[in-house]
Structures are given as structure tokens and as C-alpha cells.
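Hi R.,

Here's the chain you asked about this morning:
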Amino acid sequence: MAAFRETLAVCNMVDLGFTGLPYTYDNKRKGRANVRVRLDRAVASADWRDMFGEAVVEHLVSPVSDHTPILVRLLQEHRVPARQPRRHYEVWWEREAELPELIAQAWQEAGPKGDLSSVRAGLDKTMQVLQSWSRKKFGNLLAELDKCRKQLTALMQTGNDREAIRRVSDQMNEMLYKEEMLWMQRSRINWLKEGDQNTKYFHQKAVWRARKNKIKKLKDEDGVWRDVPSDMERMATSYFKELFTRDPNLDYDDLLNLLQAKCPNADVGKGKHVIDNSLGFGKKVRRPDERPQVKQKWKPPDDGQLKLNTDGAFTADGRAGAGMVIRDAGGRAIFAACRNIIACADALDAELAAMEEGLMLALHWTTEPFVVEVDSSDAIKLVAKGTPNLSRYATRVSRIREFLREREIYVTKVGRDANGVSHRLAALGRTQGRTEFWLQDFPPDVAAALLADCTGPV
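And the predicted structure, written out as C-alpha cells:
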């Protein structure tokens, strides 16, 4: 299996995903003897995906075989009418020294912000100013880059004005760097940093992400699937309008009065009691009749399975990190990674970010079913299937649930002692600002943590 994964990586082959049944093999046995798993899949290179950008993989149904047929459709989807483009904050704007002053001035000119409506109006006003400034100063980045490339080609063909060639080359290098940042932002690959000249890679990820996130059909109230864009637009508008309409029959004061404050010194994100050192308490004192706690060890998964451990780290000053490692039944680590989380709300957000990143990497680098172990009960409750989520973490939870549907994956709770490697990796991301990925060739500190976590080989 390791050789197969290596072959896919060398050939740059990526899973095309699927629609239909979540498995391709069913041994058709009853009860606990029944096995359903996604064994068969369609993979393709980046060039093939660019050529057939609308290809869809379908899992069909077979009444005879224990393997479901796989059909790849090179179909033409419904064309959605062109819409007015959304305004985005571009990361490459930050290359300009005047940007902070421009934002501060636009925000001040937007007037007072006494409620959420005025805050939204201020954000819209600021974005309009930034877009206008960008059009006047840079124009269309990609068009200007193409123009600069043609200008440099003409200068190099003559070869006379060396000073002009140097000046245009410097200008083009700066524009190429901005282009890389633009596509990296749209690809949402946040575990790599800009500066590696991976423009083609980021562009392909952005295109693939847009295709994967595209909603192809919706089920209406009568249980009928609708795939016409106008029908889906009407259904989505009606759903969110009803969802965010205030219920006039609900008295919020009566609801809030039912809640009582419990454990004022508590970290809600981690569910742990916070000891106030200012009161003179330094550590927990064990009762004479209380047995000492035995530290748990990491347990390998069953044969044929993998185990992914993730953890998030967060401090009150806003620094956060994520750690993840996946190992097989022999305790051998397939990969490990740590990431510095730039924008994190709280400890629970860090836990969810670590789970999301770990699932994305595990689905890319492995093909076997696996178990996910986390030490946050709150995170497990949020990603549980079948429960609607309208919390501040709804977007991240939705992405995690989407990953969980792609393979046979189970999420379980584990103690902190048995989650030592991912905890160590999360600390590296938080304290040292490290964002790194290792595929079996681990640095000494990570290898030491793996050895300390289990008795199996690394």
C-alpha cells in the first residue's frame, strides 16, 4: 500500500471524488459481518483535470457484483448566468506601504459604528475604496503581467538597452510574486507559505476547489432533487430567509433567565478548570485515598486501518497552532505536520482547524479507512452527523463533515496523554510559528515524540 501511495504521488494522480453511494465494495453479509468500504476510485493527473474540468465520477448500483461499477461522465453541466463579481480583499495589496493608512482613512470616513448594520456599511465602504485604489494603481494584475511579459520579450530580442531590461525584469518579478499570492489565496492552501513559486499548483488547486464546492443539485421540501440553477437559487434564498428571520413568538429574556452561571473560571473551549494563581493555588492536591492516575499510551489501530491524531493549541494572546500525525497498525508514521494558525477565535476553533487540516492531508496521502482521535469532546459533538450547526464554527464544521463523507472514517475521544505527538506538534506551530509537513523523513524532535508515544517502530 505504501508503494501504491508513492506511485500516485510520483505520477501526480489525485482522487476525483464521487457522487452516489459512499462505498464501492459490499460483501452483502448480515449484521456485524457486513463490510462496506470505498475500495475502487478514479484518479487523474492535473493536466487531465484541466482538460475535463466538468468530469463527474458516479458510483452505480449492481444487483450481482459485490463491487459497484464506477462511471466517469464527461458531461456538460448547466451554465449559470454571469453574476457581478464579488469584492475580495487581496493579500498582495499588503505589498504596498500605503495600504494601512488607506484602510484607516476609509474606515474613519465611513462614520460611526454603533451597531452591526453600520459596521457592515463601513466594511462595504472600505472595500469599495480599496477596489477603486487597486484599479487605478494596478489595473488588472494578470493583464498587466501579460503586457509586462511581452515588453520584456521585445527588449530582450533587441538586447540594446540593458538598463531597461533590468527595470522591466524587476517589475515582472514583483508582479509574478503578487500573482502567486493571488492564486494561493484562492486555492485556500493555508499550510504552505508564499514564496515557493508554486503559481501553477495554486491555480490548479483553486480551480479544483471551485469545482468541488459547486452545488449541483438541491432537495426541495417534497424530497425532489432540483438541478436547474434558477430553482436552486430560489430554494437557497427561501431557506436562508426563513432561517434568519426572527421568531416573534420567542421572548429572549425568558430564555436567558433560565441560564445560570457555572464555574466562572472555566476555559469553555477546552472544558478545563482554570486555577487562579493569584489566590495562592499552584497545583492540585491529591486526597490520601485517591489513586494516582496512570498515563495512557497511544494504541495502534486495527489491521487494515490507520489512525489520525489531531490537536489544537491556543493562548489568550491569540497565538494558535495545529498538529496532526497518522500512523498504521504497526505504529509507523505515514506523515506528520504542524501549522501556525493565523486567525483563530478560541481553543475550540484551534481544535477544529487541526481536525480539518488533518482530514484533508489524510485523504490526500492515504487510501485506507482510518480513525480520528481528538482530545476535545466539544469538537466531537460539533462534527457529529445529523445535528444542525449554526454556531460561529459552522463553516469549518461543514468542511469537516464533507471530508468525513469521503471515506469510512470514525471520530473518537482520546485522553491528552494518548495524544502526545499531535499535542507536541500543535505547540510547535503555536510557540515557534512553524508550518511544516513531513512524509516519513521526520526531524529529531518529531521523531523523539513519536518514539515516546508508542513502542512500535517509527
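Residues 162-187 form the longest helix (26 residues).

Let me know if you need anything else.
M.
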